[in-house]
Q: What sequence folds into this?
């Protein structure tokens, strides 16, 4: 019975993670919120794998590398409902568009996109597209997407565990805050997945992810006092970019 209960909790956490971070159809389950954060790297790896299958089909019918890379970006956004991209835009608008903590949080809550948000999306998407073109050309897309998906979701768990919620309401507050052990399991799982997928390139990817994630976390703490759902979305996008950039740089 204890083994059955443990398996049930693990399965429930996995379903909860997919429900929170994707728009995939799922069976009924009890949401576990931040308690499911240990499994977020698995969610990212599965999303990356699904997109890689679609991209392989595109390559098989002769689509150029640039079009395939654009398709990858579109499918990644579609499978997650644009959740992380929206967070990136709102984070850029809020952190750099307001003069006070309250004004920054107000801007981040506004659904309209401003100049900082638009520029952040353009620059990050263009950089990711460039890295993806190189990876597609080298025929290493599936391992790259699986590794980047896992590592970027682990970065979210770490930031969520490291910083308190910046506001009393919102997605981050409602989901809760994972403990250090939960975040550590997420990192360990991401390292296993990433190491199996991309091998030695993992070290460079991990270094740049750590740098970008730490920088964003420090800026968020200084400007709004913690993290929000938007900050977590921006974390995923920047970590994803960092991973893809280092994977592309390691190509022969």
A:
């Amino acid at each position: 019975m204890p083994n059955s209960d443990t398996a049930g909790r693990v399965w429930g956490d996995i379903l909860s993670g997919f429900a929170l971070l994707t728009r995939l159809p799922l069976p009924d389950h009890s949401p576990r919120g931040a308690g499911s954060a240990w499994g977020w790297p698995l969610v990212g790896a599965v999303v990356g794998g699904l997109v890689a299958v679609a991209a392989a089909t595109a390559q098989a019918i002769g689509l150029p590398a640039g079009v395939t890379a654009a398709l990858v970006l579109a499918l990644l956004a579609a499978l997650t409902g644009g959740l992380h991209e929206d967070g990136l835009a709102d984070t850029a608008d809020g952190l750099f568009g307001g003069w006070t903590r309250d004004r920054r949080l107000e801007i981040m809550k506004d659904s309209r996109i401003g100049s900082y948000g638009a520029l952040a999306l353009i620059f990050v998407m263009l950089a990711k597209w460039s890295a993806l073109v190189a990876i597609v050309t080298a025929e290493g897309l599936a391992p790259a997407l699986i590794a980047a998906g896992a590592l970027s979701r682990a970065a979210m768990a770490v930031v969520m565990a490291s910083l308190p919620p910046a506001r009393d309401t919102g997605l981050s507050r409602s989901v809760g805050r994972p403990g250090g052990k939960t975040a550590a399991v997420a990192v360990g799982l991401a390292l296993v997945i990433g190491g199996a997928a991309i091998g030695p390139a993992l070290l460079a990817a991990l270094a740049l992810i750590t740098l970008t994630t730490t920088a964003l976390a420090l800026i968020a703490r200084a400007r709004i006092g913690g993290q929000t759902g938007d900050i977590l979305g921006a974390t995923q996008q920047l970590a994803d970019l960092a991973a893809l950039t280092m994977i592309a740089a390691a190509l022969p």
Remarks:
- The CA atoms of residues 34 and 249 lie 34 Å apart.
- DSSP finds eleven helices and no strands in the chain.
- The mean pLDDT is 94.
